[in-house]
Specification:
It is built from nine helices and six strands; from the N terminus they run βαββααβαααααββα. By secondary structure, it is of the alpha+beta class. It has one domain: Glutaredoxin (3-Layer(aba) Sandwich). Helix 1 runs parallel beside helix 3, helix 2 packs across helix 3 and helix 6 packs antiparallel against helix 7.
């Protein structure tokens, strides 16, 4: 059985949803027979590549909030992340994620996508590291098992750009308007950072349907 997950690396709900899904998968009786593939989705594809701003500045502008209100808003999802045992730093930057998604596709090809996404999430959400910076992203990717020189070659060119765009096209075709979005065996869908119990139920339903 396969589970396809659309997410963006700057999406805190994706961060929480991933942890909850993995908790459900860990307790699933057939977990060793489940393939999980993460797909690209950009929350803000219009964000200029090579530029970024602070997360709290972005929230202040987007929702017309004061800095204190923006922090309180971010901490709503932060408290959910911490409840899942995740690190969460509201001081993280926000930038264009296209190149990060390209490197994640390299990770998929090299069999380390899950480790890489976990490492990027840890660096970004827990440590507020600038994963949009070439050197930082390369270091994180190398720590997750990728070859640093190969990561550099990807970032220097346009490798995996078509794969990112194909993921996003498929999301539009399916009707995905927000992330995280989970598709269980191309039959059942679940949107958002649902409780682990719901993910467990979806896994069971998809398995029974498949069987």
């Amino acid at each position: 059985m396969r589970v396809d997950i659309w997410s963006d690396v700057i999406c805190p709900w994706c961060y929480v949803g991933k942890a909850r899904f993995e908790k459900a998968l860990d307790s699933f009786a057939h977990r060793d027979e489940v393939e999980v593939v993460y797909h690209s989705f950009e929350l803000d594809p219009s964000s200029p590549r090579g530029q970024h701003e602070s997360n709290l500045t972005m929230l202040s502008k987007k929702f017309g909030k004061s800095p204190a209100e923006a922090l309180a808003l971010d901490d709503q999802v932060g408290s959910l992340a911490r409840a899942e045992g995740l690190g969460f730093d509201s001081g993280r930057p926000v930038g264009n994620t296209f190149d990060v998604h390209r490197v994640l596709h390299l990770g998929l090809d090299r069999g380390v996508q899950h480790a890489l996404l976990g490492a990027v999430n840890e660096a970004y959400f827990a440590q507020a590291r600038d994963v949009f910076d070439r050197d930082v992203l390369t270091e994180v990717a190398a720590g997750a098992g990728l070859d640093a020189d190969e990561v550099g070659k990807v970032l220097d060119g346009e490798a995996y750009a078509d794969e990112v765009r194909q993921d996003e096209l498929q999301a539009r075709q399916i009707g995905i308007g927000g992330v995280p979005f989970f598709v269980f065996d191309m039959a059942l869908g679940a949107s958002g950072a649902q409780p682990a119990e719901l993910f467990a139920s979806a896994l069971s339903q998809a398995w029974e349907r498949k069987s």
